[in-house]
Amino acid sequence: MADPLLIVRDLSMTFLRRAGLFGRRTHQIRALNQVSFTIEAGETFGIVGESGCGKSTLARCLLRLLQPTGGSVRFDGVDLLALGDEEMRRMRQRMQIVLQNPFSSLNPRLNGFDLIAEPLRTHMELSRKEMTDRVASLLAEVGLSGEFMSRHPHQLSGGQAQRIALARALAPNPAFLILDEPTSALDVSVQAQIINLLLRLQRQRGLAYLFITHDLSVIQHISDRIAVMYLGKIVEETASEEIFADPQHPYTQALLSSTPMPDPASGGQRIILPGTAPSAANPPAGCAFHPRCSEVMEQCRTVFPAPRHTAPDHQVSCHLYDHAQ
Ligand code: SF4
């Protein structure tokens, strides 16, 4: 069996923040703490967690827009952290990102043609006619007509702008897309259209997706597997249907209890978490979730729970499962 397209092992990212008079003191902010996962070609891997849990830092570390402070990232057999800047720039043709707010990611001075042609010009030598045909074909792929070539971002709806951002990301023919909250800024009906578009593009192009969101209901239908992140760590990972059928980590259970279900009769009691997520600058000792956990035990306050397999494809980091392998 072929290796996964993306292999992430023990990825860590620690920022140093200056504080105090004249910035003489430094704080360490551990945004990512030994994050490991794999993504197969053509698969969607969802990452869910509250704002500030490290999801977007993870996206930037995978693309080396931030330089991780530890761990490894292999993409299609290549060690990304060992690449020089020019090699990494070329590698990013195959690894693209789509951000939450298309209006902040699209240059307002460029029209649809130039927005989509820009990455093509960077990576390929095409005649004007070839370029126009390519842009028209990419627009058609994302469900837009040729008239969008002349429109600027301020003339687009949120959904149309996100389709242009997608066409731009697809232009260099990537194998892997990082989708960082791609539907969060859109109306619910438009969200469904973009999710359906992503599913169709994945079928047609065999794309792998890393879908990052704070909202479990959004990734329910698109993800093959889901990882739940809390304060820079993955605390639970399993198949998408399994996370909804049998959430095991107390944090996952709380997230799920606040997710609207299609069948309200199937829902249980909503779990209200006390307080807010602690700061990565000052994380609690032991299990970082312990100040908010209703199941907290003495060892949770001092000992970090190691990841355990509670089933072959279900991994949880919580002392409630210390008996598992
Ligand atoms: Fe709760 Fe302890 Fe499990 Fe952390 S390790 S989630 S505090 S039971």
* Unique ligands: iron/sulfur cluster
Mean pLDDT: 91
Distance, first to last CA: 25 Å
Find the count of extended strands (DSSP E, 2+ residues).
12
Q: Which structural class do you get from the secondary structure elements?
A: alpha/beta
Q: What gross morphology would you assign?
A: globular
Low-pLDDT ranges: none
Proportion of β residues? 15-25%
The Rg value, from CA coordinates, equals: 21 Å
Query: What does the largest sheet look like?
Result: 8 strands, mixed
The total count of helices amounts to 10
Strand numbers in spatial order across the main sheet: 6-7-8-3-9-10-12-11
Helix content bin: 25-40%
| Helix and strand run | EEEHEEHEHHHHEHEHEEHHEE
Q: How would you describe this structure to a colleague?
A:
This protein is α/β, with parallel strands linked by helices. It has ten helices and twelve strands. Strands 6-7-8-3-9-10-12-11 form an eight-stranded mixed β-sheet, sandwiched between helices. Strand 7, helix 7 and strand 8 (208-213) form a beta-alpha-beta unit. The radius of gyration is 21 Å and the shape is globular. The model has no long low-confidence stretch (mean pLDDT 91). Iron/sulfur cluster (SF4) binds at residues 249-250, 287, 289-290, 293, 295-297, 300, 305, 318-320.
